[in-house]
Amino acid sequence: MARRPIEEPHAQLVFQIGDMLVRHRGRESSRSAAFTKLPASTTSRNTRRLVRTSIDYFLVGNKTLMLAGFIDGRCLPKLAEMILTGVFAMSTQARSASSSVPALTGYAHALLRIVASYLLLTHASAKLFHVPHIAMFDGLPLFSLLGAAGIIELVGGMLVLVGFLTRAAAFVLSGELAFAYFIGHAPKGHVFLPLLNQGEPAVLLSFIFLFIAAAGPGAWSIDARR
């Protein structure tokens, strides 16, 4: 049966354990020269042998005892093999658990982009098309501050929704919403308490779009496919 190569990161983990064992006893540590760089063809059997040598070096060469009773190196190789097995298991589980994190982050990022864009588009639709109907927008002139805001929100919201030119569109929307807050809500007072001047949606959406401008569109976007 062919021997399965051991990945070099595993060896590095064993190094770290050796360093910690020595530092725990308050002594300086140095690594075994044979263990400095493992070739890609290193086998499981060879790795166990090198690890045993390294652990012996750390524990015996530095006169550091791991457990009472382990006074000579003959007791240590089995213990080193147990440590190596545990490290392999833990590192494999850690990589398996963390491998799905980037994918989940990308999907959550995309959901944030889509939901924020949809909410903004409802504001644009209310201003420009009166759907949903809001009485204060009745008879709204297209060439006015609110009319211009509706156009920016409609175009920018659609671009961010589909993830096309996302960073630029999100940056413009963030600025437009910040401007809307200071023009339409801050004059009512309580600049730092948007709850009291009904400016919370503008503040929250402004920072969400600022985040999207900095972080990009995430998954499910045209930009990600280009």
Automatic annotation (TrEMBL):
Entry GO terms, CC: plasma membrane
InterPro entries: DoxX (IPR032808), DoxX-like_oxidoreductase (IPR051907)
Keyword Transmembrane helix among UniProt keywords: yes
Keyword match Chloroplast: no
Membrane topology: Multi-pass membrane protein
Segments passing through the bilayer: 101-121, 159-183, 203-222
Top-level lineage group: Bacteria
Compartment(s) of residence: Cell membrane
Annotated keywords: Cell membrane, Membrane, Transmembrane, Transmembrane helix
Family as reported in the entry's similarity comment: Belongs to the DoxX family.
Protein name: DoxX
Species for this entry: Candidatus Paraburkholderia kirkii UZHbot1
